[in-house]
Design goal:
The structure is a homotetramer. By secondary structure, chain A is α+β, with helices and mostly antiparallel strands. The first copy, chain A, contains three helices and six strands. The interface between A and B is medium-sized, with 26 and 26 residues.
Chain lengths: 141, 141, 141, 141
């Protein structure tokens, strides 16, 4: 299975008054890691949009929180595909402490293939065959 | 069933390059609406923390996206309790277009009662009886 | 002088570990209030973009911080024009406590008129005469 | 002069509907780079707070914008001290394209030394002598 790994450091502005990560920040990071995952398998979403009027929008997202993230903690976000259907691809993200590997968050993004040629009217479409091949290869064996 | 309703307007900075809401913003709004819901039933989380060292942290969150949100659209976020267990309370949020009532997002936050007297070591606890009563009343009949 | 006033409540997610507003949030709010100010004088930036390929981008922004903002505090953001040049318009924003009127933040946004017909190459232009008239009227007398 | 350098990649969620960085994101990054700068000279703000009830809050911030930031562009943020007074230290940040070195943003943060032992009543104080020495060394020669 192909995995893409991103390391980052939790910053002051990511924290809430308890001194732990304000949870929407986790979603900002996994969204970014989704884009980086796609790029790592050869699908740059920015190019897909510009060249073919295709984007992968969100159908569903979720997170389960196991441990809080804290000031200047180093974390490691690992992304992989764990589902591929006609119109959707599902990403799984785990966020762990870089040092010690403790699990902070398990997350899921279900992304749906969109024809965005008319921005006022985004339309779900089947994932084109060539893109599906790249995604399938991205699942690995 | 008690519901708390918040109206807001989608702003430029909430949007992504497709001109639709960047999904972590929805989580920022429902987190805020969770706090406002608690306040509407007489539980101000800021006071709970200061007076009793109790907070409701997040165990799990999720969103399903039905329609995109767009520039200067007015939306209505409705929050209610749809689950109450020993240590957790679950909030349901729906985000609809104010005009026309079309559904944009359905969201869930599962919040867990925490003893935060030692900020370095947050500890899940049973929801104290008096707070449980307020939450139960907040479910309504 | 025309002023546009927006009331909002400071939320949990706006706060840093000290329990005070994380300062980039102030910029998010004044950006939003800039858009609302323009709308209040009859210039909806979203329409300007769609209809005429014009946007007001940022040349410069600044904030001075006088008092921190805190949990569930009600604030009032007042926006007005305090400068108009060939290519730029300058907005002044003040953020005050709604109750008691204490000053929290004074902010400035210098916005520059852009031709965005080629998104890869945004180009500063003179503010078109009719828009300048609307802005001038928005300064008031 | 001591400089601290941080590289980052502009992500989808940092962008506005024009496909360029929404400007409050720049402030989030320079705030983070301020903390990393302090850490690079041996002042970890998190420790200062915990051990000595001291923080460096914001008195003033500003940015000038020269070029927009775009999707998956690599940028380099360089931070240094460019002012030190009794109670305040001023940081200068420049944001440049990593490839080609073009200037995107010039930013300033004026930070004021705070006694935060009473969180309800933050109090500006003179920068303690030992911390001033570290900052002075951080200016370099």
């Amino acid at each position: 299975m192909h995995r893409n790994i991103v390391e980052r450091k939790i910053m002051w502005g990511d924290l809430d008054p308890l001194g732990i990560v304000f949870y929407p920040r986790f979603y900002e990071w996994i969204d970014a890691c989704g884009h980086l995952f796609f790029e790592s398998i050869g699908l740059t979403l920015g190019d897909l949009w510009r060249d073919r009027n295709i984007m992968f929008g969100l159908a569903e997202t979720s997170c389960r929180y196991f441990r809080p993230g804290r000031y200047h903690q180093e974390i490691r976000i690992t992304t992989s595909i764990n589902g591929l259907e006609e119109k959707t691809v599902q990403l799984k993200h785990t966020i762990r402490e870089s040092k010690g590997d403790a699990l902070l968050v398990e997350a899921m993004e279900k992304r749906i293939c969109l024809d965005v040629s008319d921005q006022e009217n985004l339309r779900a479409i089947e994932i084109p065959r060539d893109i599906r091949e790249v995604l399938r290869a991205g699942i690995g064996t």
